[in-house]
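Summary for the steering committee. The consortium agreed at its last meeting that each partner would contribute one worked example illustrating the joint modelling workflow. Our contribution is presented below. We chose a case with several input lines so that the handling of multiple components could be demonstrated. No manual editing was applied between input and output; the record is shown as generated.
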Amino acid sequence: VKDLAQSAVEEARRAGAVYADARVLERSEERIEVRNGRVFCDLREERGLAVRARVRGGWGFAATASLDAGDVRRAAQEAAAAAHAAALFAAGAGNLAGGPRGPARFETRVERDPFAVPLAEKVALAMSAEAAARRAPSVRMARCRLRFLRDRMVIATSEGSASERILHLAGAGVRVVAAADGRVEVRTVPAGGGGVWAGGYEVVLRLGLSDLAARAGEEASALLAAPLCPEGVRDVVLDPWIAARLLHETLGHALEADVPSSVRGAKEPVGSRVLTLFQDPAVDGAPGTIGVDDEGIAPQALTLIHEGAPTAALTDRERAASLGVRSAGAARAEDFRVPPTVRMTNLAVAPGRGDLEAMLADLDGLYLAGARGYSVDAARATFRLSAEIAWEVKKGKRGRPLRGAALCGLVSEVWRALEAVGGAESMAVAGLWCDKGSPPQRVAVGHRLGPVRLRKVAVLPAGR
Amino acid sequence: VLGRDEVEAIFKTALAASRADDLEVVLGGGRLNLVRLDEGAVRENRSETWYELRVRAFSRGAVGVARTGRLDPEGVRAAVARALEAAKAAPPQGILPPPGPESFPEPTRYDPAVAGMPPAARLGVVAPLLLEARRHGARASGTFVARGGSIGAGGTPGLLAIANSRGLFAYHRRTRLRLDARVLAGEGSGWAEAEGWLARSFDPAPAISRALAKALAARVRRALPPGEYDAVLEPAALATFLRTLAPHFSARAVEEGWSFVTGREGRSVARGNVTLLDDYTHPLHDGIPFDGEGVPRRRLPLIIRGIVRGLATSREMARRLGVPPTGHAPLQPADGDAIPQHLVMLGEDRSVEDLIASVERGILVTRLWRHRVLRPERALCTGLSRDGTYWIEKGKVRHALADLRYEMSAFDILAYATLLSRPERALGVVAPAVKVRRFRIVG
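What follows is the complete predicted structure of the assembly.
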């Protein structure tokens, strides 16, 4: 496989590419879904090769599912020809930035290979979680999904680097829809689209999926009778998963160097002094722990925000060159079909103190969970994030649930309202599927953080 | 892109290898060529060539799916065996066996020059956009896609052909061209799209001019306070709302109780001037004549003169309801059941300019993005206007506005639609521009 990648690189060079790289990808995937009692398993295998070529700043790319030598040669030649054509309108003819080369081999640590677990066992797990979600009254739809991925990628570049990367991802999620009297409420756990982690079957077993599902069903059902969240300026505590979504959308994407943003290079702080944020390439169990990115660079440990002030950006080799820095190792592609773009790997928030109960202890406000719709404007200046559920908290006591709560405001202000971050003992690894770009590419991004407390933020009811 | 005979040979190998009660095989894929522009430069010039064979095995009333990118006999047989293994892992569930044979019209919209469009020719299509924008001190953005076969936007394989062990065989090869032209100028931006299927007759020039004119008119933008305004939504803006409505017309969503249509069948949900259909045969659509179960697509009325008149049904839902399936099922099994996929909203004999001329004070919206559903039961949505939002006063466009955040139910759009224009195809929907009252802008 490595020889195949190298031969593609050489062929692209012969066809005039100044720089070329090639990735060969083999992917196995299992999806198990139970929806309202219906079970199905979807088993998938794919492989393919991608060649990327650069000529005077122009990028060309060709991908093929055929690993036949002739098809690989043609793809390499086409990538070079595409780069020549693109060079006429290239963004810049600069060199690519360097970065630490990826290791010769990286593999996710797995305790129990999910592909070796009998299908029937995985089906039984999903069935019991789905049944637990359906027990609550008024639940009209419950769905449990499990997903396991094994991704073997070999990359070779014309600069002589070569790496093999084997990633194992495990995902799980439950979605519940309750409906009565023309009202509809949704709960997703641990997140919309499911959570995703690096690891094997053990990851899913540790979740306690049936308990999560049962609670989701009860909450969705209880929300049908819950009052609408009143409008106001409130102190709020966010559960780590909705906090991860807010962080991801407001700051994570804004730190990606290919996204227009007022966060990078901002003169004013973008968060309070409590906020320090890293790209952490080695978070155990996080799906952005990839060892080597899709340009052959090892993702770097970087301080992205230090005590509220932005300090670095997420970059690939091209964007790093234009910023005059080394690549952050944040070039990622969904699969062999598409070229890499700048993506988050893992975002890690520096821990504060205390667990959730400690954060709620002196709160008069709301505790929010379950990210629903997130919407941000083109300049990523204003946002709106709806929560599936909010609990009233009075003097530290969690009270009745409220429906329809949405955080809204300015991206530049919401993190300045950050008052506290949960301590190390409250940290969760929240792995989310993220779509970016047009056409969109989906990759799994890791977030490590605890619950967060925001002081005096605007909360609006969605759908008065 | 694989021809009918090649596909048939692959399917034969699969069906011959089957030990299942029944077998369904679906092939998707082909070749996609794409140029992506950003800030006046070419960021990507690329192609992808691949197929996915999807095998659905039926065993004891359960199903299992296996997918593979390998189309050689060994790869195909392995997928067939794995699909049966997947089916056997599920308990018996009374799932319907696949349907029998049907005949379908021959595909006519296939141009090998689109599927095989070489790298330099792709640049030839976008060069006028880049150069025109530059000439006006603006920057071009957007994408150009030339595709042969069924590869979808997010790398989904789509549906090129389907067959099953009960004698069904359906194959539909086509090509599509689409330029999504976005121009950035000063504070503002403009957008338009061009579509086609035949390389030699594809003409992106009108879309380029339109995107550029919109951007140049939006170089300086003013803010607008929150409130309810009269608004003219161009077809692309309305299309985004209509797409949000589609899942509400799924019979299963209605049965499960989370659709707005639940309890409103045969009742009014829109003004009397609103008629919404699903029609893959509309000349502006180029739909394929069968769905993901191999069922012939039918024209389906959804709303006739404001009244709910139809729902999309899969074979399974149709059996439960005792009606014929409408031919709107996605590839099975899928999370979503049958939903309308070729929306057509009828219009009236007016131009967009006529609609603008009727507005005393209001806004003109080119298109929307970051569109999200806040409350599913009313299809209450939020999002932002984009690529050309303007202030209208006394029937004339006066100046550009900064992007606006709206919060609006998609059904309210139809309830407040006072005037419609002639429809066109935008973002995959045939829709008119619409004048709506009480379009709600929030902070």
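The radius of gyration of chain B is 23 Å. Chain B has a mean pLDDT of 96.
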